[in-house]
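Write out the 3D structure for:
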Amino acid sequence: MNSYEKDMHIDETALDVEFLEQPSLVMKYAKLCAQANLDMALEQERFNLVKSDLDYRIRSNPLNFGIDAAVKITEAVVLGTILQQDEYQEANQKYLTCKYEYETIRGAVSALEHRKSSLENLVKLFGQSYFAGPSIPRDLSKEAFKKLEQEHSDSNVANSFNRTVPTSRRSI
């Protein structure tokens, strides 16, 4: 179980502890989310700079990028050339990875809201004795019969040792 799954798990036998941990978990993931958002924004800026730099370099010297001198330099030609560059693909991959991490952590923050609701509902269920075992009324006639059988059994055991078994606790 990874850390995220562990943090989202609820131990229904320790609801008080789970409630006490909830605010610190929210804060932990809120900070992680904010950091991931910052990382994503910074990576997006780097990505935009790479894209802008490639655009400038392609327009300045199209021959260096394999564009024939006879080809008119249009937006489509420049964009198509940018997309083929390793620098662009690498920067784009880094940005997408940061975006994925941010979305995942943002999902964790959302999951903590669901966790909070689950905790509240579990406490309500607990207050309504939902987790109590089944309560079956005792059948007193069966209880009395079992007691008689037990006394008869004790008597047989005692007879095998030639001893008497007291019939009530007062005679002990």
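The chain has two domains: 3-127, 140-171.
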